[in-house]
Amino acid sequence: MFKRVLTLLLAVVLCLGMLPAPAALADEENVLILTDVEGDSRMEAAFEYLYRLMAYTNALVTYEDAWTDISDVSAYTSVIVLVEPDRRLSDITAWAIRQSGVKTFVIGSGGLEQLSPNTMRPEGSVVVRWSAEGESEGSGDILVKDNGILLLQGEGESLGGQVFVNSESYPLCKTVGDITHLAYFDAESNVMCAMLASMIQLWQWPYENAPTAYGSYVVLDRVYPFYEPSRLMEITDMLEEEGVPFALALMPIYDHAEYPAMKHFCEYLRYLQNRGAGMILSMPQVTLSQVDSEELIRHMEIAYSAYSAYAVYPTALQAPEVYLLCEKGIDILKSFRTIFAVKTAEPIPGHRLTTNAARKDGHQIIVSAWEDDQAFTTSFAQAIYLDVNEDVETLRQYVRRIKASRRVLKSLTQMENTLFLSDNYIVQNEQGVTVNGVKVDLNFYPFSYEADYEFDRGFAQYLTDQIETSNKLILIFVFIACTLFITFTLLSRRVMRKELVQGMNKKRQKVKTAENEATMQEVDQG
Amino acid sequence: MSIADYLTLFAMIAIWTLMGINVFLSVGGFIYYYRMAKTDPHIPLEEYPFVSVMVPAHNESAVIQRTVRALLNFDYPKDRYEVIVINDNSSDDTAEKLKRIQAQNPDRMLIVVNTDNKVGGKGKSNALNIGFSVAKGTVFAIYDADNTPEPQALRLLVENLMADESLGAVIGKFRTRNRNASLMTRFVNIETLAHQCMNQAGRWFFFKLCTIPGTNFVIHRHIIEEIGGWDPDALSEDTEISFRIYRMGYKIRMLPQAVTWEQEPFKLSIWFKQRTRWAMGNLYVLKNNFKYIFDPKGGLMRLDVLYYTLVYILMMTALVCSDSIFVLGILGYAHVSLGGLSTLVWVLACTLFVCNVMLTLALEKNEFSLQSAFLVLLMLFSYAKLWVVVVLKALWMSIKRAATKSEFTWYKTERSAD
Q1: Do the Cβ atoms of B23 and A468 come within 8 Å?
Q2: Which of A254, A308, A376, B38 maximizes the CB count within 10 A of its CB?
Q3: Which of A475, A492, A499 to mutate to test the interface with B (most CBs of B within 10 A)?
Q4: What phi and psi values does residue B68 have, to the nearest 5 degrees?
Q5: Residue B410: its pLDDT value, please?
């Protein structure tokens, strides 16, 4: 009995030992972001970018107001401070950060003096130069108003950029002890945005070696159903010639997917799919705040079926970036693992979230690359979009420029993409595509077409035919009516002219009669 | 198929049906005008009946003298007609001006009935009923206070009325006196000419139907007595009385040689108020007479009820639909997926409209010109669109009136001294 109990206890201990240790969670970066920014200010724009950046990088973050008292920050592996220059952190929180020794990244001057005693405010005209020593290649100057910049003093490592005060140079971003300080940030500069992404990745990276470099994906944007395959072929042939892996962002289709033109279009997509091109389904073009989630998902299912019916399997979703930043959008995106997040002007609906809520769904997020070539970072995956309406030679030059850059071009099919839609679980990896665990045939074979396809548009087609017939009748009717009217008009004018002539003759006759009468009277009087 | 598709289809069918009807009526109207131009309309009578020429006038100081002088100048036996001006609660110097003309013409039968705000000021029908109570004639002739009838107009109307027992009334033609006053009066001039040729003459030619236009018409006294006078609730007493005459089995004839010249609204605001009143009045008549459309005893009158239904209900809704879809389409809110809707059809409709109206202008002296053709085209995209707004407003006001059971407020068309 005792032996049995001992064996059971041993088994329980062994089983528990096989479970992931809680310590493993502690290894993960857990960032606390403290903010106090004003609407429409430069720092507000900076926060907006930081908020998006955390979503791009799938970071585990908690957003807190800078004035909130947090007496224990040990739950976090790092802290980012983004506060207006004239605002402060809560003294308790500042104290807790100093006491804990948690690594802290301060953007701008707000709160820095509370976290480090070693600061200086240089006097004189300040020029910020963000000549990149890291990934971004841009450079530029911004003149900051006098005494408008705060710098961290002491021995430390520079993470890039420079600040010039009266010709004296200081690092733009510097780490001293636990504090890393970015003296100036402007979200309007793409190069600075790219630099910040690289700096934060480098700051968070716990190892000595270089952090993970994420690749770039070339995407043919807005490929509409029924797009002329021969035109598409010219572009894809060029990309293959240049050795560039690519994917196609397919626009959704809800009706008439059975038309031969769609079949022909999909036949070519299938050919490309077989040759390794990735397929991305574009989200229906709707404003998130007005969208009915169920309706949108239903439309996505219809659009997906339209392609999968021809064995074309989109394995990623292209959606506006704003979907990643609010609960409603996150809920819609959850069926797809790989998301191509497109920058749009659409504002984030509702309140900002206090965490990076999209993270729980484990997305692979690929963000639109900046159009500015100099704004370059490998701290998150990016998509380079090609306009299929551009001429092939222009696209070729652009592709060559991309190839010559430091970007690592990757194929969508090299990563594992999954999605769950219409009760189908679809997985794409290097082995191919499986639907509900069953591997599908991706080999290309020509489609067969019906010689005389019956375009079944039902009543609408019937009406169209009737209208076309009526148009001919209308043409005949108008021709006859106008001929009749013109004839009548000419007839009327002739009658009018006759009346006019008769009227004039009558007048002349009257005048003559009057003259004759006058002559007669004169003769009589004479 | 979307709602936009169905509405477009409805609008197309309705518009082309109405265009077909207009073409048909225009052909009839032309033939009638052409025939009349070649015939002498005079039918001398052995004895001319005594005629009461009635003119309702409310604040008509600007135009009344000219009108009364024209009425006194009729080429009709002077002792066989009287002119009754119902000075209907005027606050201007209409009464003084009328008194002056009376003094200048002591030998003429010019009767002025001045009413106050208790008896008068309740609209044209009420004023005509007051005039009717003092009139001696066996035939009544009605003129608006802004009219200048040609001298032979009354004689022609009366001769033709008396010559045919089946006629209850004979109407003449009205022309625009101030057609060059503004762009609006030019449009109104074209509209009235086209309306009289296409609708009045055409309907008379094919169906022996005509609607009394409110001025320049003669009617037997016994008919007015039988129908109990004018309906004071009717804003367009002319249309209302026409329908009652039809129901009595009489015909109303149009005589294009009997011409009166009238002043038309020269400003958009005046035009809009006047037309809203007309449209409200016609909708009232349509509402009261629609039941006869299914009554076999209604005879030919049913065609007129149908015609009014087509114009006021079908055409209005068709134009609202097509214009709305056009605007929403431009804004990106509506999309028509029906095939076969070509621009050519639209161009054909415009061409037909221009040719049709130009034919009616060709029948008049000094109206047919390139400038008129341009105006007709311009009308199609401006004036014709206003008509939809007028009918919609009239419809809304009629519904509101029915819901609140309020009385009509008579809008008196503003005049100018031309």
Answers
A1: no
A2: A376
A3: A492
A4: -65, -40
A5: 56
Q: What is the CA radius of gyration of chain A?
A: 37
Give the amino acid at B294. Answer: F
Q: Which two tokens stand for residue A236?
A: 């894809």
> For A501-517, what is each residue's pLDDT tens digit?
665 566 667 666 767 77
pLDDT tens-digit readout, B347-368: 888 999 999 999 888 888 788 8
What is the token pair recorded at A19? 């479970």
pLDDT computed for residue A145 by the predictor:
64
Q: What is the mean predicted confidence (pLDDT) over B127-131?
A: 92
Residue A465 touches partner B, C-beta closer than 8 Å: yes
Cβ–Cβ below 8 Å for B37 and A495:
yes
CATH topology for the A216-439 domain: TIM Barrel (3.20.20)
SS3 content of chain B, % helix, strand, coil (to 5): 55, 15, 30
User: Inter-chain contact B368–A477, Cβ cutoff 8 Å?
Assistant: no
User: Which residues have C-beta within 8 Å of that of residue A211, sequence separation ≥ 6?
Assistant: A201, A202, A204, A205, A379
When CB atoms are compared, the residue of B16, B338, B368 closest to A463 is B338
Q: Do B338 and A467 touch (CB under 8 A)?
A: yes
The residue of chain B nearest to residue A480, with distances taken between CA atoms, is: B352
Chain pair A-B, CB pairs under 8 angstroms = 81
Q: Is A463 in the B-facing interface, judged by CB distances under 8 Å? A: yes
Burial of A454 by CB count in 10 Å (0-12 exposed, 13-18 middle, 19+ buried)? exposed
Mean pLDDT of A230-241: 93
Closest partner residue to B356 among A464, A474, A485, by Cβ?
A485
Confirm if B311 and B318 have CB atoms less than 8 A apart.
Answer: no
B332: contact with A, CB 8 A cutoff: no
Q: What's the pLDDT score for residue A17?
A: 40
Q: What's the CATH class of domain A25-204?
A: alpha beta
Candidates B27, B338, B352; nearest CB to A478 = B352
C-alpha pair distances (Å), A164 with each of A32, A118, A137, A176, A184? 31, 19, 19, 19, 12
Domains, chain B, with CATH or none: 3-28+295-398 (no CATH), 40-265 (3.90.550.10)
A504 touches chain B (CB under 8 A): no
Where does CATH 3.20.20.370 sit in chain A?
216-439
Tell me the pLDDT band of A26, cut-offs 50, 70 and 90.
very low
B401, pLDDT greater than 90: no
Q: What is the DSSP code (8-state) at residue A289? A: G
For residue range B240-274, what is the model confidence (pLDDT) as tens digits? 888 888 888 899 999 999 999 988 888 888 888 88
Residue A85 pLDDT exceeds 90:
no
pLDDT interval class at A142 (50, 70, 90)? low
Whether residue A18 has pLDDT greater than 50? no
The reply to whether residue A489 touches residue B27, judged by beta carbons under 8 angstroms, is no
DSSP, collapsed to helix, strand or coil, labels residue B61 as coil
Shortest Cα distance from B339 to chain A (angstroms)?
Answer: 5
Q: Do A475 and B27 touch (CB under 8 A)?
A: no
